[in-house]
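step 4 of 6: structure.
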Amino acid sequence: MNIAESTINGIKVLSLEGVLNAASSPKFKAYLETADHSGPMIINLEQVEFIDSSGLGLLVRLARQKKSANEALKLAKMNDRVKRVFEITQAHSLFDIYDDIQAAAGN
Amino acid sequence: MMTFRQLPATNTEDHSMTQILSATLKAELKNSRIAANIARSTAEVFAEERHFSGNVQEFGHTFELAVSEAFTNSVNYRDPSIKDITVTIGFEEESNALTASVTDMNAPFNIHPPEPEITEYPEGGFGLLIIWKLMDEVSCSREGQSNVLSMKKFISRP
């Protein structure tokens, strides 16, 4: 899995690419823990081809941290396969989900 | 190492909806992504050959995700002294359903764990929940020292 970082309207955007499963989640977890990711954040999931419960659990963990810090976490550009995992677990109720990055950034 | 064993096709005049029509396929795998991809491909081909009227890609994703979750469970709940685990996946075709099985050598486990309380932002507990939500029938049997988790999805109801 690849992680790219950018900024839009002062909001950090993490763009994930590839598979977010039990094998790749530790890489994303380490990335989140080894740098300062305070402040509002958008996760761009457009290039995530597959996510399972391990990847989902990591995003829920991040959502909990952001909620505790009273910081926004928004998910953007989910494909149908990713969206399905969030919906069947009800995890979509924990996130603000947007169809595109601009909308997530408030433009 | 990946080995396949394909059993002879069943040739019968009985076309009942639960008749096993073709073959059982088994593979011993160490990589969950390979297992998941085999599951997706198998399910998509199965659905296409049965002229499934629904979404073939979604049917494939159902098996890809379920097998991935089962495989991950097998790895996560293995004997801690075992570093290199092999999981066997299998598929059984019926005229109107496909069953994937995931076999490991772990201790018995509960396939009915309590569902995670989503409002508490749980990090875990989603794996079996996803399998139950995706599949029409889920069961686990003990065969010798092995767990065999079976996951069935119908393409049409009998």
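step 5 of 6: annotate
 - Confidence is low (pLDDT under 50) at residues 1-22 of chain B.
 - Chain B is about 30% helix and 25% strand.
step 6 of 6: archive
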